[in-house]
Amino acid sequence: MKSIFNFLIAGLAMVLFSNCSHIKKIASAENDMNKSTTPHVSLTETYWKLTELMGKPVTMDSENQKEIHIVLKKEGNRVEGFAGCNGFGGTYTTKNNFNISFSDMIHTMMACPELDTENQLFTVLKTVDNYYVTGDTLSMSKARMAPMARFAAVYLK
């Protein structure tokens, strides 16, 4: 009788352990699948295309052949980009995974008929003090208020 009881306990234990192992494998496979389909976008070394400025959508007009964008480089904490007519560059500083500031900003001074968006972008970059990346969107704001600028990550091939 004791051997039958031990046999039943051993069989039950094997069934339970095999089911737990199977569940862990399924959960692990689901996590791997989610990781592979959800790209990780970093603040740095990403081409960020401007999509919204001061609450208004930004679209590329027919005159502009190049989209408005920024790239934050890890090396030297450099920022570079294109504002619609002029290229720009400078430095940035981050801390606490959400604070950001831009300094030493310089830009070319091409004469263009429409500079409103460009001037607004330069003002925003001087003003913002925090950022957050959600999915493939970068938002920048002042004092955690409504975003002053939104950018979308562009995956270059």
Describe the structure.
This protein is an alpha+beta fold and 157 residues long. 31% of the residues lie in helices and 33% in strands. The chain contains two helices and nine strands; from the N terminus they run αββββββαβββ. It has helices at residues 2-37, 116-127; strands at residues 47-53, 56-57, 69-72, 78-82, 87-95, 99-107, 130-134, 137-141, 149-154. Strands 1, 2, 3, 4, 5, 6, 7, 8 and 9 form a nine-stranded antiparallel beta sheet that branches. The longest helix is centred in the N-terminal third of the chain and has 36 residues, at 2-37. It is globular and about 40 Å long. It starts with a helix and ends with a strand.
Terminus-to-terminus distance: 70 Å
Structure classification: alpha+beta
Helix content: 25-40%
The main β sheet shows up as: 9 strands, antiparallel
Number of H- or I-type helical stretches:
2
The rough form would be described as globular
Order of helices and strands: HEEEEEEHEEE
Tell me how many strands there are: 9
Given as residue ranges, the uncertain stretches (5+ residues, pLDDT < 50) are 15-38
Tell me the β content: 25-35%
Layout of secondary structure:
Blueprint lengths: L1 H36 L9 E7 L2 E2 L11 E4 L5 E5 L4 E9 L3 E9 L8 H12 L2 E5 L2 E5 L7 E6 L3
Antiparallel strand pairs: 1-2, 1-3, 1-9, 3-4, 4-5, 5-6, 7-8, 8-9
Attribute tags:
157 residues; alpha+beta; globular
Describe, in short, the structure shown.
It contains two helices and nine strands. By secondary structure, it is α+β, with helices and mostly antiparallel strands. It is globular.
